[in-house]
Amino acid sequence: MSNSATEIANLLYRYAELMDSGELEAVAALFDSATIKSQGALLDSQGLLEQWQQWVKIHPNGTPLTKHVITNPIIEVNEEADAATCRSYYTVLQATDTLPLQVVAAGRYHDEFERVAGLWRFRYRDYSLFDLKGDLRDHLNFLV
Fold it and tell me: What is the Cα–Cα distance from 134 to 45, expressed in whole angstroms?
């Protein structure tokens, strides 16, 4: 994997790490320069943060009690244009006092990246590719 592809993959994994630790503001900051497609609307990072603050159930330990697993990244880099795309899968695992360990959601991310001042960042994410729904009652404040 090229250095650029590794840096882009690390952005995907950092997203999962921050989301699972309940650091919604830090997750949203990853998208400061991005446009996000969600629920048929286009959002900026502040709109995405507000959506997460309304939707994601944060438990008494300060986290959503989830593990986001991001797999199968297909990263295509155009070094000359400082641009890249990635298609990946996500699987969300959760276990709570009332919910045994299980998959609660699965889907896909379609991302675009740009390199600015030598650093890769999100430019666009299609956050609407939700494929499989499990028991979301302990993960979201509403049922999809």
Answer: 27
Q: Which long-range contacts (CB under 8 A, 24 or more apart) does 37-41 make?
A: 37/124, 37/125, 37/126, 37/127, 37/128, 38/127, 38/128, 39/128, 40/128
C-beta atoms surrounding 25 within 10 Å: 12
> Which domains, ranges and CATH numbers included, belong to the chain?
3-133 (3.10.450.50)
As a whole-number percent, the residues of the chain with pLDDT over 70 amount to 98
Report the alpha-carbon distance of residue 136 to residue 144 in Å, rounded: 8
Q: Cβ(75)–Cβ(5) under 8 Å?
A: yes
Q: What is the pTM of this model?
A: 0.94
Q: At residue 24, what is the residue type?
A: L
Q: Where would I find the H helices in 1-136?
A: 3-20, 24-29, 45-55
